[in-house]
Amino acid sequence: GENVEQHPSTLSVQEGDSAVIKCTYSDSASNYFPWYKQELGKGPQLIIDIRSNVGEKKDQRIAVTLNKTAKHFSLHITETQPEDSAVYFCAASKRSNDYKLSFGAGTTVTVRA
Amino acid sequence: DSGVTQTPKHLITATGQRVTLRCSPRSGDLSVYWYQQSLDQGLQFLIQYYNGEERAKGNILERFSAQQFPDLHSELNLSSLELGDSALYFCASSVGWGGNTGELFFGEGSRLTVL
Question: Which of A67, A111, B24, B83 would you label with B13, given CA atoms 20 to 30 Å apart?
C-alpha cells in the first residue's frame, strides 16, 4: 500500500517566520494530496489540498507544492501566528484505491510568541 | 464544528472487555470512515462505509467490526480489548466515495483507555 513519510516530526518557529513541512510518498499512482490541521482536542480539519495535475496551490498564508517526479509535496506557512500551532498531517490517495487516504505521522508545529 | 458527532468522548475499560463507539455523519454525507490515532502511529485507516455498505478496509483487526445503519450513523465495535487498543478513534464523513469523495470531515474523536 501507499507509504507516506512526513518530516519533521516537531517544528518550533518564531512568530512571523515561515514553517515548512515535507512529505514523500511511495506510489507514483497517487494523485490527490490533502493537508489536515489538528488542534488540541479536535479532529483533523482540511486546510488545503492539491491534485497531481497542479504543481502549486496557495490560499492566503498557506501554500502547497508538489513534485511528482521526486514524489514529494510540501506545506508552506508564511507569517506564522500563534493560532498556527497544531499538528499537521499530510496524506496521499489514488483513484485505484478509491481515494482512501494514507496519512503521514504528523508534524507538531509550535509558534513562539 | 465539523458536523460529525462521536460518542462517547472518553471511555475507560478493562482488558478483555467490549466497547461500541458511535458516529453520526454530517447531514447529507453518505460515507463514513473510521481511523485509529495512536501516539506512535499517526492516523491509521480502519474501514469505510458508503450508504450502508462496506467500501474499503484498512488495518482493522479481526476483533474489531463496524457497520453503518439505514439512518447512516455508524458504530465501531471493539472486542477482547488489549492495552494496545488504547487510542483516539476518529470518525470522518464525506459526501461520496472514490473520485467523488470530496473533503473528509472529522469528528472530535473517542478516546479509549484500556487498563
Answer: B24
CA angle A45, B51, B85 (to 5 degrees): 55
Chain A's closest residue to B97, CA to CA, is A98
Query: Phi first, then psi: what are they for B30, rounded to 5°?
Result: -100, -20
Say yes or no for a CB contact (<8 Å) between B4 and A101.
no
> pLDDT tens digits, chain B, 115 residues: what are they?
889 999 999 999 999 999 999 999 999 999 999 999 987 678 899 999 999 999 888 889 999 999 999 999 999 999 999 999 999 999 999 887 665 566 889 999 999 999 9
Q: Is the dihedral of CA A53, A68, A84, B105 positive or negative?
A: positive
Residue contact A89–B42, C-beta within 8 A: yes
Instruction: Report yes or no: B71 and B51 within 8 Å, Cβ to Cβ.
Output: no
- Looking at the complex, report in whole angstroms how far the Cα of residue A41 sits from the nearest Cα belonging to chain B: 7
The closest CB to that of B107, out of A43, A99, A104, belongs to A43
A60–chain B Cβ distance below 8 A for any pair: no
Give me the total of CB pairs closer than 8 Å, taking one residue from chain A and one from chain B.
54
Amino acid at A91: A
- Tell me phi and psi for residue A73, to 5 degrees: -140, 155
DSSP-assigned beta bridge partners for residue A46 = A36
